[in-house]
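The instructor's notes for this session suggest beginning with a concrete chain rather than abstract definitions. Hand out the sequence below and ask the class to guess, before any prediction is shown, which regions might be ordered.
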Amino acid sequence: MSIEFTQDTEGIYWERLSVVFQRAPLGKRDPVKLQETFWNSPIRCFVWDGKELIGAGRAITDGVRTA
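After discussion, reveal the predicted structure:
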């Protein structure tokens, strides 16, 4: 197992991420909306096991504090 963390949205398959959310189980997510929310989040993280996307997270910020 080779776990890697990235912040870059390049190379993200948003359909795959929607499957990850559903399996979490965090409910169904529209891949287009996922892409928009992660693109608009200045703090984000994607988790890879080799070439497989296995997780993601983001935080909302006002520029002073994050949550």
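Then share the key points. The chain has a mean pLDDT of 91. The CA atoms of residues 42 and 59 lie 8 Å apart.
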